[in-house]
Task: inverse folding
């Protein structure tokens, strides 16, 4: 089973600033990496698949990059609605596995 | 609009059983794999089970194999999970999730649409 490790656990950012979240896989997963956003009391929402392809309706301020074992989710200018928990998920090797999440909080 | 509506969660005693249901609409159900993903209180996400579009291939997480059974009814656009021999560690919100990807024996899927979740609490 591939282990996904996200860092940092918590990221404190001021509105309008840039946030950079990291996700590392325990072995190469090519570009089979997805990112999800989860707000309190809500189901997760797909943001990015294939490491860099934004899902329908996802704002352009969200961007994903990376391949192999190192991946990044960037939010260029944080809006109030972006404060949430973000999870990465690999789908190159079954079972699909998730990172433990990064909480983006207001600084 | 794609919709997935989970139901069936409840409080159940250890060793008990429960059946979760997920009614879907807004997409061609027979073209997609379906999954259950769970989230224990205050914890992260854990994939639990997969069923292929034709119901011919199923997969389970090691933590539930032998106790949970996933199924689907393509005539009703619905997916189910029968949960037996429930344990305290099965307590979680269970999400019905649509898979997007390829493969059945070695699936490569991400999860593009989620139900609202249904809470299963296993406690005496």
Result:
């Amino acid at each position: 089973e591939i282990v996904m490790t996200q860092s940092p656990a918590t990221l404190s950012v001021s509105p309008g600033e840039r946030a950079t979240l990291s996700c590392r896989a325990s072995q190469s997963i090519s570009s089979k990496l997805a990112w999800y956003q989860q707000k309190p009391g809500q189901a997760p929402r797909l943001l990015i698949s294939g490491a860099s392809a934004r899902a329908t309706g996802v704002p352009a301020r969200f961007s994903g990059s990376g391949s192999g074992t190192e991946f990044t989710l960037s939010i260029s200018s944080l809006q109030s609605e972006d404060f949430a928990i973000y999870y990465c998920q690999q789908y190159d090797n079954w079972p699909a596995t998730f990172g433990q999440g990064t909480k983006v909080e207001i600084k | 609009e794609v919709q997935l509506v989970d139901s069936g969660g409840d409080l159940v005693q250890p060793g008990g059983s429960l059946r979760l249901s997920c009614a879907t609409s807004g997409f061609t159900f027979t073209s997609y794999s379906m999954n259950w993903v769970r989230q224990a209180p205050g914890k992260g996400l854990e994939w639990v089970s997969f069923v292929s579009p034709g119901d011919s291939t199923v997969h389970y997480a090691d933590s539930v194999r032998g106790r949970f059974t996933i199924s689907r009814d393509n005539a009703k656009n619905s997916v189910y999970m029968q949960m037996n021999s429930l344990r305290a560690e099965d307590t979680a919100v269970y999400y019905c999730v649509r898979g997007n990807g390829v493969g059945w024996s070695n699936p490569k899927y991400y999860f593009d649409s989620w139900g609202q979740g249904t809470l299963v609490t296993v406690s005496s």
